[in-house]
Write a structure and sequence with these properties.
By secondary structure, this protein is mainly alpha-helical. The chain has 14 helices and no strands. The protein is elongated.
């Protein structure tokens, strides 16, 4: 839309100037009056906008990288409260209250599912995943609701579902969501899929292939929850890693440094790691693995 003032300024500028009347002979020349439009030096308007907002894909400075699936929701909420602006905090509080008050579906879509879609715009992309995890937790989303959000959601909303699994699903019922994410090549989705829920419930054969998937897609193995414990004395994983390293070497390609780290963890002579703390719904006494076990069979 063209602003009326801009149109008016253009019209004046395009109108030929009217010649000034000639002075009578013998009259001293009057000094020309400077044109206030063209002769006045331009001054920059003071910048009142304040600090510029980071670009959407740029994380806010000094924002800690919080492991969402491994951080209790109460701690996650405190972190967000400390980092969000006033308007974003108010929006988050309302969204959590709505999710807690109306956890079920009302009509074709629940109100908290709408808030999941708004999270990035309201709280910033650097906090959106954490906000979505808290909304899912406040809504007490069960496996059916999580599956619906995962199936219909964006990649960011799928990530939030995967991060929320250890907080919401005590058993292996949501494993199909993890298995689906492990079939993708989206590295952020893969990183979310190999969190505590996979460490607790993914079968040995699938877990080994998840580790290999991280290696050849470039996902750092530090993203694999409980890697030390699950890899310890795993001879089959050691064999698979050796085969993969041999294939890379034969093809003239470098072997990922993370592979050597995982291979070292498979050493049966190494000291077994202590059990990891579990903040999931099964509580600190919940046993890891598929229905409580992590067998080494393939």
């Amino acid at each position: 839309m063209t602003h009326p003032q801009a149109h008016q300024a253009t019209s004046v500028a395009d109108t030929p100037a009217t010649p000034a009347p000639s002075a009578p002979p013998g009259t001293p020349a009057t000094p020309a009056t400077p044109d206030p439009v063209t002769a006045t030096p331009k001054t920059s308007a003071p910048d009142t906008a304040g600090p510029k907002t980071p670009a959407p894909d740029t994380p806010a400075p000094n924002t800690p990288n919080v492991p969402l699936a491994r951080t209790p929701p109460t701690t996650l909420h405190r972190h967000l409260t400390a980092h969000l602006g006033e308007a974003a905090r108010a929006w988050l509080d309302r969204a959590l209250e709505e999710a807690a008050a109306h956890p079920g579906a009302h009509g074709p879509i629940s109100v908290w599912e709408l808030r999941l879609a708004e999270a990035g715009r309201r709280c910033g992309p650097e906090h959106a995943d954490a906000v979505r995890v808290l909304i899912l937790h406040a809504a007490r989303a069960d496996t059916d609701a999580l599956t619906r959000v995962y199936a219909q959601g964006t990649a960011a909303e799928r990530r939030a579902v995967l991060h929320a699994l250890p907080h919401l699903v005590p058993g292996p019922q949501a494993l199909p969501l993890v298995e689906d994410a492990l079939r993708t090549n989206d590295t952020r989705l893969l990183a979310a899929a190999v969190g505590p829920y996979a460490a607790r419930h993914l079968a040995a054969h699938q877990w080994r292939h998840a580790v290999l998937k991280c290696l050849f897609t470039g996902v750092p193995v530090t993203e694999v929850a409980e890697l030390d414990r699950r890899a310890h004395a795993d001879a089959e994983l050691a064999r698979m890693l050796g085969d993969y390293a041999a294939e890379r070497t034969a093809a003239g390609r470098p072997v990922p440094q993370d592979l050597h780290r995982v291979l070292t963890l498979t050493d049966p002579e190494a000291t077994p790691p202590a059990p990891a703390a579990d903040h999931g719904p099964s509580g600190p006494d919940g046993a890891p693995g598929v229905d409580g076990t992590h067998g080494k069979e393939s």
